Write the structure tokens for this entry.
Amino acid sequence: MKQRIKALFAGGVLALALFGIAMAGPLEDGYTAEQRGDYAAAISYWRPLAEQGNADAQFNLGVMYEQGRGVAQNYAEAVKQYRLAAGQGLADAQNNLGLMYEEGRGAAQNYAEAIKLYRLAADQGDGKGQNNLDLMYEKGYGVRKNYSEAMKWYRLAADQGYPEAQHSIGIMYSFGYGVPKSDVEAVKWFQLAADQGNLNGQYALGNSYFFGEGVPQNYIYAYMWLSLVAPANSNIRAINSRDEVAAKMTPAQIAEAQRMASEWMQSHPSKR
């Protein structure tokens, strides 16, 4: 749920409207410095803007303090900067501040405050806020557990292409949480997430092919999707599942699955 520093102009209209086009120079210079790994320089560009009330710069400083980039990690200072930007209606800041409250970092854990902030972002149509809000309803954090309400927000986020929400919808259908249980519908959502490189979606899709749930059983497809997950983060579950599938396959089938996985990675370089 954590969000990286925003791309310039992704939500920078507010900053430009408040401070004029001249502000775009140092703001953009900060992004350039951040991208090359010169975090101290990025902060030197953003801090004066943040002190003048630039919401994007405040948000960016919050990220730097939260992650300890160019400054000593300081959750309280991150919360301070996020709060300033969130107060100006910046959805990314509302999301990150909500996460700090949800996890109790830099501020006392407060699910009610987290939900309030996620809802502010979600009501702006922000997919991250919608995804964060539905997780609270699914977990029952700060609200009565409500799968139907969770599904409503998951769908809004999924419609904007958020793979985490797409995977979660698949899980809801897989277990019948808030919707009629449907393995076929679950696979549809797992596929959408998997196609975007979401590891949870790929793992779920691989297992669906392994067990023949919602799709015809197919060990080659199962091995392919599970092998994409296994090396990505040394996922022990995926490695074990992939090896379990391999035990049922011929060498030729394994070679075909490996070829398909390699082709997928080559055609989706940005998804790895």
